[in-house]
Amino acid sequence: MKGYTYRTGDSEPSTHLPLWEALVTDSVGDVIEFWGFKRNHGRVWALLYIRREPMNARQIQEDLELSKGAVSMISRDLEQWNVVSRVRHPGSSAWHFVAEVDFMEMITHVLQEREGELIRRVSTDLKDAEKLARESKEVEQETLDRIKRMRTLAGLMQQALDIFMKTARLDVSDTRDLL
Amino acid sequence: MKGYTYRTGDSEPSTHLPLWEALVTDSVGDVIEFWGFKRNHGRVWALLYIRREPMNARQIQEDLELSKGAVSMISRDLEQWNVVSRVRHPGSSAWHFVAEVDFMEMITHVLQEREGELIRRVSTDLKDAEKLARESKEVEQETLDRIKRMRTLAGLMQQALDIFMKTARLDVSDTRDLL
DNA sequence: CCGTAAGTTCACGAGGTTTTGAACACCTAT
DNA sequence: ATAGGTGTTCAAAACCTCGTGAACTTACGG
Fold first, then answer.
1. What is the pLDDT of residues A71-128, one digit of tens each?
2. What's the mean pLDDT when you consider all of chain A?
3. Chain B 1-20, CB below 8 Å of chain A: which residues?
4. Which residues of A touch B20 (CB under 8 A)?
5. Nearest residue, CB atoms, A125 vs list B27, B50, B163
6. Taking the CB of residue B6, how many other CB atoms lie within 10 A of it?
7. Which end of chain B has a smaller Cβ tally under 10 Å, C or N?
């Protein structure tokens, strides 16, 4: 099972960040990790989101206690997913980052892909399995039925996930207006 | 009876199981893994499900090429989740396992718990964060709003997941009647 | 009871993923 | 052009999770 289970005991949140900021960034980190992203994707986005002004890589690195390389890679990811954008800040030669507000978009988007890929593969494999089982006599009807049942189940799963993602996105854009 | 089979190349599914069975068990393994369980949870359950008759640990171990210990632990988990039950088989001193049909139940159940735990923690952390931020002046209103927004977002997430799980369960029990 | 087979537990290691940091490449301002 | 700060890459390190198998415990049959 993935990492969303626990945070180590007392979990002293990052040292020199105000406690409340640490709580926010870590929370978002945990949630995002639940969805199969890296914890630090969430932490970086959250930091940018509550700071509300462009930050350069160096500040992020210090505040979240990450390495140079990590910040570079994480922010590239976030940028690619359009939840963070990179801007020039007057009076500085460094890039600065700002948070976009719709990160639910990102979650649903990436989930969409991952899930699609999975379901596609499973569906064809099960179809093959059914065909093979049917050819090799000796397999009872009830067994064939069970394979078929699993196939419809895969379909239902996809459907359900789609619904989930649609409502999620809907709910969040509602929220966005709200602010 | 050493294994002479040595297949290079792509994705050779477990060797001595009929190909179609391997396809089925591996597929279920992949799906279940997506949901944050172990791959072998899915494989064991699927094997029992298609075989349709009680199997003892030894058979499972051989068919899926697992270790003694693994089979023991995996089947304990499955049993705890009520997707497999342990029965006495006449004429044998060993326990035998059979698959229950509703494993969507299990997914939703366990997800329910894990997700609940997570959301609960995140909610209180964000509540604390908001309180702290408010106390330490210097924090602008807009920032407070953003924290609040994240809180409602956590709530929405929970809600969405609930909906998803309900529909999933519903769809599946439909399917169950269907057989 | 005893002997044997079945079942459980757990320290360890293999395998996989994330982070690090040093080397390298790229800008920008002078 | 070039110096110095910025940004990226990637091999190695740290980390985490799972499966293994030997040691142990339990249960059954005789």
1. 999 999 999 999 999 999 888 889 999 999 888 877 888 888 888 899 999 999 999 9
2. 85
3. 18-20
4. 128-130, 132-133, 136, 139, 147
5. B27
6. 7
7. N
